[in-house]
Amino acid sequence: MDNESETQVDSSASGRRDPGWKYGRLVNEKDLNTIICIFCDKVTKGGIYRHKQHLVGGYRNAKKCRKCPEHVREEMEEYMSSKKNQKEQMNMGSEYVNEDLFGLEDEDISEEINSRTNITNISSGGSNRGGSGGRTFSSKKPRQKGPMDHFFTPNAKMVVQNQRSGKMNQTTINDAYKKEARERACTLITRWMYEAAIPFNAVTYPSFQPMIEAIGQYGVGMKGPTFHEGTMFMQSIDASSMIKTGEKMFELLDKWVEQVGEENVIQVITDNHSSYVMAGRLLELKRPHLYWTPCAAHCLDLMLEDIGKLPNIKRTLERAISLNGYIYNRSGLLNMMRRFTGQRELLRPAKTRFATAFITLSRLHEQKNNLRKMFTSSDWSDSKWAKEQKGKTIANIVLMPSFWNTIVFCLKVSGPLVRVLRLVDGEKKAPMGYIYEAMNRAKDAIVRSFNGNEEKYKEIFNIIDKRWEIQLHRPLHAAGYFLNPEFFYDKPEIEHDAEIMSDLYKCILRLTRDPAKQEKVVAEVSLFTNAQGLFGNELAVRTRKTRAPAEWWAAYGASVPNLQKFAMKVLNLTCSASGCERNWSIFENIDDSNEWLIGRMEDEDSHGGAQDDFVFDDDNLTWGDVARAAGAEEARFDTRARARASSSIIPPTRGIVSSSRTLPSYSLIDEDEDGDMVDSADEEDGEGYKCGDGNDDDDDFVDLEEE
């Protein structure tokens, strides 16, 4: 132990950070190459790296230390492994690589990685650096690429042509390393092709080699394309003259299917405008082996829009927009708000107008207590804004119990739908295998948030069911649900659901052209349902919920090749056209959140009028209601009136079965134990706002925000 302590002091004094120095000492302080092991007194001549090989064992160049404690061995092995990964990262970006690099001390390598990256110019003789046997290691900084490189980087296709014509056959001292690096790259490319089930002859396509060359020209750290960036842009067309004509839109879509090749098209996605719906139906009639699908993100946004039109929710949105706009249009008041909220903003722009609305309501709810404290503080009461009529109105909104209670209601019904919107509009995974279950869970969450009280959510379910049944639901969604191993093996009822099975067979008939192959696909379904063949493999069972569905089929579907091809075709599909719109639309930078900054809704001046004004700020009674009650105006039959007259039995969403999984709760501070909205008298305390104890359930809505 004395030797070990002495060595540790010496290594610290000399500034050496490699942990290997703790377990060895130098024979000669001027020779860093010869080290004695403190456990067995074995002398190694190869620097600190060779000494660590001696401690760990298993290396040809060093005999294993028999007396090394196990914890020391593990420490050294872990350290060497991390350093090896670090060196490999450095090598990937180096133009020249020194094979003797691994003989250097690891702390020196760290410095090289952090400061120079490239280690070059190996020569015999010269000065001795680090006791490396008389070899000289000089280094140069990596060449940094700048904006001008854009103009001088050779075209990837031209580079490939020159390589094939033999114009770039010059050899360098790097050839040996480049061969090894190429083999490593080829291994990773091949592994990707295995997992994605890409035919090997794909590498013969003319576009393959220019792709590889372009990646090489980018250099280290290139981020691969996202799910939507894999989208191929073909052409921009001014369709303003034909947008309202279904036949014209059909001709346009059909032309592109013809150009791409019908055999290469599985799905055509458009938004839900009536002309697109007609065009999609006509396209399916003419092209029997593809599907037209409405954009799921657009359908969900329309659901949120319909919910936002309900009188009580619309009034709450108007108040929230007015509150937000008033604060954000006054810099002094905005700074005051930020002091009370801890620099948290109220506005949270999202991908669609109505997602922005409900996510911003979530932000407001999160800052409820802070806003109430602000509008009852001396900072506010002493300000000029507290004396303005508009300021008094805004303060009344913040201190109004019904405003916050309705926000809670809005979040309960919109939160699950915003999560589905994020799923279908995201880029992390193909959503086709998830949307069916996601809609099911969204409805389950809404039911639970109201403790099963149907009167509170039946209007919302009418809106959801209308959009799902008439617009959104398609056979592809049911087929993706059936083929997703994460859900299928947990829910035996899926196999016995007549509608799901009917949609599955519809997809098989439509997407598989050859009748003989159709029969083979159907025959192989039983192997999947019974978890036979590779489906019963331990790895397959263990990764049902951890791997993406299409990847899982690529890995374990070899025993059912026809069904495997069909499953991957379905599960790799998207559900939305929003990714394409983001990539190519000239309108992608238009701000949908302007109404939240202006302080009024877009249609506030053009719809409703005086009859929609509320008689009392804290009630839903309008002057139009008063006029109709007095017989001065004919009654209007709006959504709420129709909902009251409808049957109390709400039909389930088409084809959606009950979820057996436990979903997150949506109980909130503004409810009593029975799920009813809290009476305003019960909610208010003596100071006019509810005091937070830090243990409420406000966090239930935090995950509404976009990641």
Automatic annotation (TrEMBL):
<feature type="compositionally biased region" description="Acidic residues">
    <location>
        <begin position="694"/>
        <end position="707"/>
    </location>
</feature>
<feature type="region of interest" description="Disordered">
    <location>
        <begin position="1"/>
        <end position="20"/>
    </location>
</feature>
<feature type="region of interest" description="Disordered">
    <location>
        <begin position="651"/>
        <end position="707"/>
    </location>
</feature>
<feature type="compositionally biased region" description="Low complexity">
    <location>
        <begin position="117"/>
        <end position="126"/>
    </location>
</feature>
<feature type="compositionally biased region" description="Polar residues">
    <location>
        <begin position="651"/>
        <end position="665"/>
    </location>
</feature>
<feature type="domain" description="DUF659">
    <location>
        <begin position="229"/>
        <end position="320"/>
    </location>
</feature>
<dbReference type="Pfam" id="PF04937">
    <property type="entry name" value="DUF659"/>
</dbReference>
<feature type="domain" description="HAT C-terminal dimerisation">
    <location>
        <begin position="546"/>
        <end position="590"/>
    </location>
</feature>
<feature type="compositionally biased region" description="Acidic residues">
    <location>
        <begin position="669"/>
        <end position="686"/>
    </location>
</feature>
<feature type="region of interest" description="Disordered">
    <location>
        <begin position="117"/>
        <end position="151"/>
    </location>
</feature>
<protein>
    <recommendedName>
        <fullName>BED-type domain-containing protein</fullName>
    </recommendedName>
</protein>
<dbReference type="Pfam" id="PF05699">
    <property type="entry name" value="Dimer_Tnp_hAT"/>
</dbReference>
<dbReference type="InterPro" id="IPR008906">
    <property type="entry name" value="HATC_C_dom"/>
</dbReference>
<dbReference type="InterPro" id="IPR012337">
    <property type="entry name" value="RNaseH-like_sf"/>
</dbReference>
<dbReference type="GO" id="GO:0046983">
    <property type="term" value="F:protein dimerization activity"/>
</dbReference>
<dbReference type="InterPro" id="IPR007021">
    <property type="entry name" value="DUF659"/>
</dbReference>
